[in-house]
Design brief:
Component of the cytochrome c oxidase, the last enzyme in the mitochondrial electron transport chain which drives oxidative phosphorylation. By secondary structure, the chain is mainly α. Helix content is 55%, strand content 0%. The protein has helices at residues 22-39, 44-56, 59-71.
Length: 80
């Protein structure tokens, strides 16, 4: 039997009550990037940020941000 992909909506985040979810999308992408830089991709809490931004953000945005991150033009500081 094949694996079943379970799709769910991201839970409420009190940091973003009653607002457009664009900021929440970006914040989760930013938090994931910082978390992976600090702890690595296998660190479980980082996966929550990954799930959140992949659920909230349009794929085109993610692809553009990933390309900018690879080019070094994304305005995120990934090292301390």
């Amino acid at each position: 039997m094949s694996d079943v992909l379970q799709i769910s909506t991201e839970k409420f985040d009190a940091r973003f009550p009653n607002v457009n979810q664009t900021k929440r999308c970006w914040q989760n992408y930013f938090d994931y990037t910082k978390c992976v830089a600090a702890k690595g991709e296998d660190y479980a809490p980082c996966k929550q940020f990954l799930k959140a931004y992949t659920t909230l953000c349009p794929n085109e945005w993610i692809e553009r941000w990933d390309a900018q991150k690879d080019d070094g033009t994304l305005p995120i500081i990934t090292s301390s």
